[in-house]
Amino acid sequence: MALENIVYNDLIGKDYKVFIGKTKKGEINFIAPKNNKFKYIQVCFDLSYERTRTREFSAFDDIDDNKYIIILTKKDYFTDDVKQINMFDFLMNDEF
Asked: The CATH number of the domain where 11 resides is what?
């Protein structure tokens, strides 16, 4: 929950509107529109467990683009259509 609060506050500070979303497969932590573009964001402490990866990535199944997982660890679990961003890199990235 604390990581989600940090991401939420940072998105607001970067002038995004922020919403929570739901799909048939689960919850999307944040839907963040800005300049008529939407970003779909999951926030997760660690993706090292298969069950966690399945839960987090499956929430994106009905979404076509701009999918991100923000994670505290550095290990890379990205897929072809989901970008993974380390939490600290996200916070330091003014271009997100």
From this structure: 3.40.1350.10
Task: Assign 42 to helix, strand or coil.
Answer: strand
- Each residue of 52-73: pLDDT tens digit? 999 999 899 889 889 999 999 8
Of 31, 23, 30, 21, the residue nearest 61 (C-alpha): 23
Q: How far apart are the first and last CA of the chain?
A: 21
pTM over 0.70: yes
74 closest CA partner among 41, 47, 35, 34: 47
Residue 25: give the domain boundaries.
Answer: 2-92
Domain count, the chain: 1
